[in-house]
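Exercise 7b. C-alpha coordinates:
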Protein backbone atom coordinates (compact mmCIF):
# COMPACT_ATOMS: atom_id res chain seq x y z
CA UNK A 1 0.00 0.00 0.00
CA UNK A 2 1.51 3.36 -0.96
CA UNK A 3 2.01 6.22 1.43
CA UNK A 4 1.20 9.76 0.32
CA UNK A 5 2.79 12.71 2.12
CA UNK A 6 1.74 16.27 1.34
CA UNK A 7 3.74 19.42 1.98
CA UNK A 8 3.88 23.04 0.91
CA UNK A 9 0.80 24.48 2.59
CA UNK A 10 0.86 27.76 4.45
CA UNK A 11 -0.71 31.15 5.02
CA UNK A 12 -0.61 33.71 2.21
CA UNK A 13 -2.32 36.89 1.08
CA UNK A 14 -4.84 36.94 -1.73
CA UNK A 15 -3.12 37.04 -5.11
CA UNK A 16 -0.06 35.15 -3.94
CA UNK A 17 1.06 31.65 -4.92
CA UNK A 18 1.83 28.32 -3.28
CA UNK A 19 3.05 24.99 -4.59
CA UNK A 20 1.86 21.82 -2.92
CA UNK A 21 3.80 18.57 -3.18
CA UNK A 22 2.70 15.00 -2.65
CA UNK A 23 5.45 12.43 -2.42
CA UNK A 24 4.42 8.82 -3.04
CA UNK A 25 6.15 5.74 -1.71
CA UNK A 26 5.73 2.46 -3.52
CA UNK A 27 6.65 0.86 -6.81
CA UNK A 28 3.82 1.75 -9.14
CA UNK A 29 3.81 5.54 -9.32
CA UNK A 30 3.58 5.40 -13.12
CA UNK A 31 0.31 3.48 -12.80
CA UNK A 32 -1.38 5.84 -10.38
CA UNK A 33 -4.24 8.12 -11.27
CA UNK A 34 -3.76 10.99 -8.84
CA UNK A 35 -5.68 14.02 -7.70
CA UNK A 36 -5.88 16.89 -5.28
CA UNK A 37 -8.95 17.43 -3.14
CA UNK A 38 -9.75 20.09 -0.57
CA UNK A 39 -12.10 20.47 2.33
CA UNK A 40 -13.02 23.76 3.96
CA UNK A 41 -14.49 23.89 7.48
CA UNK A 42 -18.15 22.91 7.42
CA UNK A 43 -18.06 21.86 3.77
CA UNK A 44 -17.74 18.62 1.88
CA UNK A 45 -14.63 17.40 0.13
CA UNK A 46 -14.16 18.96 -3.29
CA UNK A 47 -12.10 17.70 -6.20
CA UNK A 48 -9.63 20.33 -7.36
CA UNK A 49 -7.38 18.80 -10.02
CA UNK A 50 -6.46 15.37 -11.30
CA UNK A 51 -3.68 13.87 -13.41
CA UNK A 52 -4.22 10.61 -15.24
CA UNK A 53 -1.80 7.79 -15.92
CA UNK A 54 -1.14 9.33 -19.33
CA UNK A 55 -0.69 12.79 -17.84
CA UNK A 56 -4.07 14.10 -18.96
CA UNK A 57 -5.39 16.68 -16.52
CA UNK A 58 -8.80 17.68 -15.19
CA UNK A 59 -9.66 20.80 -13.20
CA UNK A 60 -12.57 22.08 -11.21
CA UNK A 61 -14.11 25.16 -12.79
CA UNK A 62 -13.28 27.20 -9.70
CA UNK A 63 -9.53 26.77 -10.22
CA UNK A 64 -9.16 26.64 -14.01
CA UNK A 65 -6.55 29.09 -15.23
CA UNK A 66 -5.09 29.50 -11.72
CA UNK A 67 -4.00 25.99 -10.64
CA UNK A 68 -1.76 23.53 -12.48
CA UNK A 69 -1.34 19.86 -11.57
CA UNK A 70 1.72 17.91 -12.69
CA UNK A 71 3.61 14.69 -12.06
CA UNK A 72 7.36 14.22 -11.65
CA UNK A 73 7.99 10.55 -12.39
CA UNK A 74 11.65 10.71 -11.37
CA UNK A 75 10.85 11.82 -7.83
CA UNK A 76 7.39 10.18 -7.60
CA UNK A 77 5.85 13.51 -6.73
CA UNK A 78 2.54 15.11 -7.60
CA UNK A 79 2.49 18.90 -7.60
CA UNK A 80 -0.22 21.52 -7.44
CA UNK A 81 0.91 24.99 -8.45
CA UNK A 82 -1.62 27.48 -7.13
CA UNK A 83 -1.49 31.04 -8.46
CA UNK A 84 -3.66 34.07 -7.77
CA UNK A 85 -4.99 32.49 -4.61
CA UNK A 86 -8.31 33.68 -3.24
CA UNK A 87 -9.77 33.53 0.29
CA UNK A 88 -12.24 30.90 -0.93
CA UNK A 89 -9.29 28.61 -1.67
CA UNK A 90 -8.74 28.28 2.08
CA UNK A 91 -9.01 24.60 2.98
CA UNK A 92 -7.15 21.46 3.94
CA UNK A 93 -5.71 20.02 0.76
CA UNK A 94 -5.39 16.27 0.30
CA UNK A 95 -3.52 14.17 -2.21
CA UNK A 96 -5.21 10.99 -3.45
CA UNK A 97 -4.25 8.08 -5.68
CA UNK A 98 -5.63 4.92 -7.18
CA UNK A 99 -4.54 2.22 -9.61
CA UNK A 100 -8.08 1.33 -10.61
CA UNK A 101 -10.08 2.81 -13.46
CA UNK A 102 -11.26 6.34 -12.75
CA UNK A 103 -14.59 7.32 -14.24
CA UNK A 104 -14.96 10.75 -12.64
CA UNK A 105 -11.49 12.20 -11.95
CA UNK A 106 -12.71 14.67 -9.34
CA UNK A 107 -14.95 12.24 -7.44
CA UNK A 108 -13.36 11.23 -4.16
CA UNK A 109 -14.94 7.77 -4.05
CA UNK A 110 -12.85 6.78 -7.08
CA UNK A 111 -9.64 7.03 -5.01
CA UNK A 112 -8.30 4.50 -2.52
CA UNK A 113 -5.15 6.04 -1.06
CA UNK A 114 -5.03 9.36 0.76
CA UNK A 115 -2.50 11.61 2.43
CA UNK A 116 -2.94 13.37 5.75
CA UNK A 117 -3.44 16.81 4.25
CA UNK A 118 -1.75 20.19 4.26
CA UNK A 119 -3.47 23.41 5.28
CA UNK A 120 -3.76 26.37 2.92
CA UNK A 121 -5.02 29.66 4.34
CA UNK A 122 -5.56 32.71 2.14
CA UNK A 123 -6.37 36.04 3.72
CA UNK A 124 -7.84 39.06 1.97
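Sequence design result:
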Amino acid sequence: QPQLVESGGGSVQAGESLRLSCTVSGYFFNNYYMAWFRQAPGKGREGVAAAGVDGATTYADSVKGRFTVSKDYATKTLYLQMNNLKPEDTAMYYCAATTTVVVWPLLDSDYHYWGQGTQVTVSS
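Instructor comment: The CA atoms of residues 12 and 59 lie 22 Å apart. The mean pLDDT is 95.
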